[in-house]
C-alpha cells in the first residue's frame, strides 16, 4: 500500500510562485497524470515528490509518513526523465543494474534482476550495447528498466515520451500502461499532451499557472470540466467559447446577435437562469452542420475545411463582426470555402461558464453523454 | 540590322569563351581551395616545427668545435648517460613535475568542485582565478622574485614562524626548488580549474539527478558519474601540464638560473647552459631530442592507460 498525499504544497523562487496550494491524493497502484501547458507547475509538483525540489511550504506524505525533508535517495522513488538521463559511459546492463549496484546487491542477484527486467521490456539483445548506439525508443526502454528494477514504492515519469516520434509514442504508451498495471505501482506521470493523459491515466490532475484546476477521471474532466481553462485544454479540437446574452430561453452572441440567435431547450436554459450573460462552451463535435436552412440554426460562412478521413474540421465565421467557430462534421457533408452552412446545437452537451470567474455553471439536469459519474472526482478551488 | 545581330552574336560568343576560361580557373580553384587555404598553415608548421625538429636531430649527431663540426653518430647520446649534470637535471625536473602537476591537479580539481557549487559571486571568482594564467611566465618570475627577496613580503609573512630570520626562498638549496614549484602552482592551477570546471558544468543535471534517484551516495555519484564525464578532460589537462612543466624555463631562469648549486637545474636550464654557456650544441640537441622522446612516451602511455579517445 503506497499512497501519495500533497498537503498545501507551495514552491516559490523568490517572488515567483511556481506552484501554490497543491492538495492531492494518489491511491495505491493508481496511475495519476499531471497535465497542463508548459510552465504550469506540473514538473515542479512531481519534483517535490521526488525530493529534487524542496517545497517552500506544505507537506508531502508517502503512506502517511512525512517525506518532505527526506533525502531523495531514501524515498524509494524511481524516476524516468524526459531526456532519459542514461549514464553514457555505462552499457545497457550497467545502466539498468545501477540502482541495485549502489544498493550493494550482489552481482548474481543483480544479473538475475537485469535479465528479468530486460525480458519484460523485450531488450535482452541490447544488454551489452553502449548507450550511444541505441535509438530513442531503445533508450526509453533502458530508462524504464532502470526505474523498475528495484521495484520502487512510487514511479515518477516526467514527459517520458516527449522525445519519441509519433508512432513510437503510441506503442510505448501502451507498454507503459501495461507495465504499470502489471507491477501495480503507484505512478505519477507528467505530460502536456492531453491525448496521452486521457489514454493513460486513472486520474487526471490538471494544472495551470501553478494551481490545480481540476482532479478527476478522464471522463469527468472531459464531460464535466470545472472551469473554462479545463474545458478549453481538454479535447481536440478545442472547445468553442462564445460570450452570449440570455433572454428567456434564447441566447444571442454578444458579437453577432442577429445571426447567432438560438433557442435552448428550456430545461437547459434553466441552468443559466441566474446569469444574464455567460460564456457558452460548445465542443466542435456537438454542432450539427446542415447545408440547407434549418430551424433554430446559426448561419455561418465556411472559411477553411480540413479533411481528416472519416470526418472534417470546418472553420466557420458567424455574423459581420465575425465570431469564429470550429466544427467537426462527417466528411459526407459537402462544404467548401465561401459556402453558407447552418449549425444546430446539441443542447444537452453545451456548457456555460461564468464570464468573470471562468467556473462552469452547474445546474439541475446537467447532462453528459454516456458517462457514469465517478464518486472520487474532486474539485478544488483555484 | 544584320550587322547588329552579327555583333550581338560575336559578343555572346566572346563572352562564352571568356566564361569558359574563367570558369575553368574558378573550377580549379574551387577543387583545390582546401589545399590553397591550408598552405600558409602547412608552411608555418614546416618552418617552425618540422625544420627545427629535423635540424635538432641532425645537430645531435654532431660535435661542435671552434674549428667546425664533425659527425659523431650517437656519441652525444652515449655521453648523456654518464653526464651527472644531465642526470641530476632529470631528477630535479622529475621532482618539479611530480609535485607541481600533482598539487596543481588536486588543488585545481578542488577549486573547480567548489566553483561548481552554487556559491555567491561565482563569476567574479572565476575571473579572479584566471588572472595568473594570463600573465607571461617572465612577468610572474619577476613578481615572485620580488616576493622572495630577502626581507620581502614572504619573509615578513613567515616571520612568526621563522622568528624573523630570512628564509632564503630562492637562495637556500633545500628551499629553492619548492619556491619555484610554488610559483608554477600559482600560475597553472587556474588552467586545471578552468578545464575541470568546464567539465563539471557539462555533466547534465538530469543525469546527476537520475543518480540521486537511483540511490547513489555523494561518493558513488562522484566516482560513477562525475569522474567518467571528466575522464578525458583530466587526461587532457594532465598531459598539457606535464608537457608544459617538462619545458619550464623562464621562471627558473629569472628566479634562480638553476641554482643554488643545481638545486633548481631543470632540463631546459641544463640544455640552455650546455648550448649557450659551453657552446656544446651537439649534446644540448641530444638532450632536446631525448626530452621529446620522453614526452611522447609519457603522453602516449597516459592516453593508453586512461583508455581515452580524443575527438570521437
TrEMBL record, chain A:
Any single Pfam family the record assigns to this protein: ABC_tran
Family recorded in the similarity comment: Belongs to the ABC transporter superfamily. Carbohydrate uptake transporter-1 (CUT1) (TC 3.A.1.1) family.
Name this protein carries in UniProt: ABC-type D-xylose/L-arabinose transporter
Role according to the record: Part of the ABC transporter complex XacGHIJK involved in the uptake of xylose and arabinose. Responsible for energy coupling to the transport system.
The organism's taxonomic lineage, starting at the top: Archaea, Methanobacteriati, Methanobacteriota, Stenosarchaea group, Halobacteria
GO biological process: carbohydrate transport
InterPro entries reported for this sequence: AAA+_ATPase, ABC_transporter-like_ATP-bd, ABC_transporter-like_CS, ABC_transpr_MalK-like, ABC_transpr_MalK/UgpC-like, Mo/tungstate-bd_C_term_dom, NA-bd_OB-fold, P-loop_NTPase
CDD domains (alphabetical): ABC_MalK_N (cd03301)
Localization: Cell membrane
Species whose genome carries this gene: Haloarcula salina
Major subcellular site: membrane
Reactions catalysed, as given in the entry: L-arabinose(out) + ATP + H2O = L-arabinose(in) + ADP + phosphate + H(+); D-xylose(out) + ATP + H2O = D-xylose(in) + ADP + phosphate + H(+)
From TrEMBL, chain B:
Matching InterPro entries: MetI-like (IPR000515), MetI-like_sf (IPR035906)
Membrane topology classification: Multi-pass membrane protein
Cellular compartments annotated: Cell membrane
Residue ranges annotated for the ABC transmembrane type-1 domain, each copy included: 90-304
Pfam families: BPD_transp_1
Transmembrane segments: 35-54, 96-115, 127-147, 175-200, 221-243, 284-303
Keywords, alphabetical: Cell membrane, Membrane, Transmembrane, Transmembrane helix, Transport
GO cellular component term of the entry, any: plasma membrane
CDD domains assigned to the protein according to its UniProt record, in alphabetical order: TM_PBP2
GO biological process terms, semicolon-separated: transmembrane transport
Family affiliation: Belongs to the binding-protein-dependent transport system permease family.
Protein's recorded name: Sugar ABC transporter permease
